């Protein structure tokens, strides 16, 4: 094979962009951990020495970090004044924890992929899985911080209203199970919006359940929210008006079994809301920016999680609507439809 020089040059250019982004990712995690973005956003334009005085960190390190961030376009640099600052958009993306586009959580998630690379390499050799609980803890916190802004933007205002009659039930008072709840961001968000309803959050990962309980107290919703350690196929039954799965069905080893358990715990007129990563049915239609991110996460996190469990179906984070429909209908549901979508999520409603 003989490489075309022009095509090779173009490829190397793309690779160098990726190398720069990868190197910058570590600095984003660092800046988020040290509170540098928030310090910069709150205090206005600064020199490295002024930021050092404000944060009590070493000026020489800050100078290099600030320069790298400016080169990435994540902050601004005024050459005439020798000062660094953030635009409103940059501050929203990097410093506003409760904003609609907060991104450092995503970098935490992908940091775990590097940390756990050796475990995944061994799984490639053996074909065995790597459980969610076997990853570095930055995955758990990063996942909550990454997904929370999107949930805050869409769950109450768009996704729940897209379900048949569910919003009205929640306003009157309903029983809800949030399965695979992680740190409880989705559960608490719904509880705050619908104070007459009661919410149960279930997750098999004990440290996440502990954190969810703490978050419920901080949000002052512990009177109508409880969290319990339980798996998707064994969480306590009842007669739930709504069961929710936020970005987790594809992680389960036996999603058909989980779906069957959901059906057994729903009231006769209950609804199951399934939120999944956006994906088209055909691989060729996912060869884009969103697919690139999700296939990477699926390789390192989602598929290994499924393969670590019984059945090990390995749906992956880009299963697509057609495959998800097959899973849900195989569990005995009679209705399945796409209720809503965003560039990053598909939202489905299933009914018994």
Descriptive account of the structure:
With 352 residues, the protein is α/β, with parallel strands linked by helices. The protein folds into two domains: 5-96, Arc Repressor Mutant, subunit A (Orthogonal Bundle), CATH 1.10.10.10; 105-351, 3-Layer(aba) Sandwich (Rossmann fold), CATH 3.40.50.150. It is built from 14 helices and nine strands. It has helices spanning 5-34, 36-43, 48-55, 59-72, 88-94, 104-115, 117-126, 138-159, 166-172, 185-193, 206-218, 255-265, 289-307, 321-330, and strands at 76-78, 83-85, 175-179, 198-203, 225-229, 240-246, 266-277, 335-341, 345-351. A seven-stranded mixed sheet has the order 5-4-3-6-7-9-8, with helices on both faces. A two-stranded antiparallel ribbon has the order 1-2. A hairpin with a 4-residue loop joins strand 1 and strand 2. Helix 6 runs antiparallel to helix 8. The protein starts with a helix and ends with a strand.
Annotate the secondary structure layout.
Blueprint: H1 5-34, H2 36-43, H3 48-55, H4 59-72, E1 76-78, E2 83-85, H5 88-94, H6 104-115, H7 117-126, H8 138-159, H9 166-172, E3 175-179, H10 185-193, E4 198-203, H11 206-218, E5 225-229, E6 240-246, H12 255-265, E7 266-277, H13 289-307, H14 321-330, E8 335-341, E9 345-351
Parallel strand pairs: 3-4, 3-6, 4-5, 6-7
Antiparallel strand pairs: 1-2, 7-9, 8-9
Helix pairs in contact: 1-4, 1-6, 3-4, 6-8, 8-10
Sequence stretches where pLDDT stays below 50 over 5 or more residues: none
What is the helix fraction of residues, given as a range? 40-55%
Describe the oligomeric state of these chains in a short phrase: single chain
- Trace the largest sheet across and list its strands: 5-4-3-6-7-9-8
Number of helices: 14
Roughly what fraction of the amino acids lie in strands?
Answer: 15-25%
Q: What's the count of strands? A: 9
User: What is the distance, rounded to the nearest whole angstrom, between the alpha carbons of the first and last residues?
Assistant: 56 Å
CATH topology tier name of the largest domain:
Rossmann fold
| The top level CATH class name of the largest domain | Alpha Beta
Helices and strands, in order, run as HHHHEEHHHHHEHEHEEHEHHEE
- What is the average per-residue confidence, as pLDDT, rounded to a whole number? 97
Number of domains: 2
Q: Which architecture of the largest domain per CATH?
A: 3-Layer(aba) Sandwich
CATH homologous superfamily name of the largest domain?
Answer: Vaccinia Virus protein VP39
Q: Structural class of the secondary structure composition?
A: alpha/beta
């Amino acid at each position: 094979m003989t490489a075309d020089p022009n095509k090779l040059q173009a490829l190397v250019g793309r690779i160098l962009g990726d190398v720069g982004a990868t190197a910058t990712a570590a600095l984003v995690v660092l800046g988020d951990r040290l509170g540098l973005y928030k310090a910069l956003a709150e205090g206005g334009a600064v020199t490295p020495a002024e930021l050092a005085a404000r944060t009590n960190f070493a000026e020489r390190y800050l100078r290099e970090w600030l320069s790298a961030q400016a080169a990435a376009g994540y902050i601004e640099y005024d050459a005439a004044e020798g000062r660094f600052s953030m635009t409103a958009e940059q501050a929203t993306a990097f410093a506003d924890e409760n904003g609609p586009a907060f991104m450092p959580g995503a970098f935490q998630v992908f940091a775990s992929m590097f940390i756990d690379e050796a475990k995944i390499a061994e799984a490639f050799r053996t074909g065995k899985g790597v459980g969610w609980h076997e990853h570095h803890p930055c995955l758990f916190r990063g996942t909550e911080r990454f997904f929370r802004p999107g949930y805050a933007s869409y769950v109450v205002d768009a996704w729940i209203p897209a379900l048949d009659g569910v919003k009205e039930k929640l306003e009157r008072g309903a029983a809800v199970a949030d399965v695979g709840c992680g740190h409880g961001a989705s559960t608490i968000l719904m509880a705050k919006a619908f104070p007459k309803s009661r919410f149960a959050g279930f997750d098999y990962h004990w440290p996440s359940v502990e954190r969810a309980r703490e978050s419920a107290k901080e949000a002052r919703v512990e009177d109508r929210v409880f969290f319990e350690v339980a798996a998707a196929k064994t969480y306590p039954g009842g007669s739930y008006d709504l069961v929710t799965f936020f970005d987790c069905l594809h992680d389960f080893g036996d999603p058909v079994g989980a779906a069957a358990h959901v059906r057994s715990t729903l009231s006769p007129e209950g609804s199951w809301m399934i939120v999944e990563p956006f994906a088209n049915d055909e691989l060729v239609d996912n060869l884009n920016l969103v697919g690139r991110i999700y296939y990477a996460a699926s390789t390192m996190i989602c598929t290994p999680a499924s393969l670590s469990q019984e059945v090990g179906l390995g749906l992956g984070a880009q299963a697509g609507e057609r495959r998800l429909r097959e899973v849900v209908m195989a569990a005995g549901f009679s209705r399945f439809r796409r209720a809503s979508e965003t560039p990053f999520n598909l939202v489905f409603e299933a009914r018994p």
